[in-house]
Amino acid sequence: MTEREQKHQNYAKSGFTLMEVLIAFAILSISLTLLFKSVSDGAWHLKTAEDKTIAIRLAQSTLARVGRDIPLKIGAVEGQAEDGLNWKVIIREYEISTAKKNISGLGAFWVVVAIKGPDQNAFEPLLETLKIGAQK
Q1: How many other CB atoms are found less than 10 A from the CB of residue 63?
Q2: Could you report the per-residue pLDDT of 55-111, keeping only the tens digit for each?
Q3: Strands across the sheet with 86-93, in order?
């Protein structure tokens, strides 16, 4: 074997073939795609959880206002919060056994608070409770 053939043979063994480089790029692109997908999914879930937390806090504060700022009477009341969320309070009479009904003019009311975001078509009930108040 001549010196020239030996150098050529060593040179061919020292580098990567085109196929090896293409496979490495394919593996790298699949890995990066999966990484970016999981990061974007995480960001979406974080935003969804944040929106749900804001809606629940609004529902809690609206429920606390029932009987104070919002009259405790049968019917529905709607409003809009400063951040664009819409709320709705639905108050229904709660049936109590006849033996305990109308004790001292008090009645039981079933209160439901529903929240609707700006991009939603319908209200989503979040909180429900039973409140005692004056029977009117």
Answers
A1: 20
A2: 899 999 999 999 999 999 999 999 999 888 999 999 999 887 655 555 677 888 999
A3: 75-80, 86-93, 106-116, 124-134
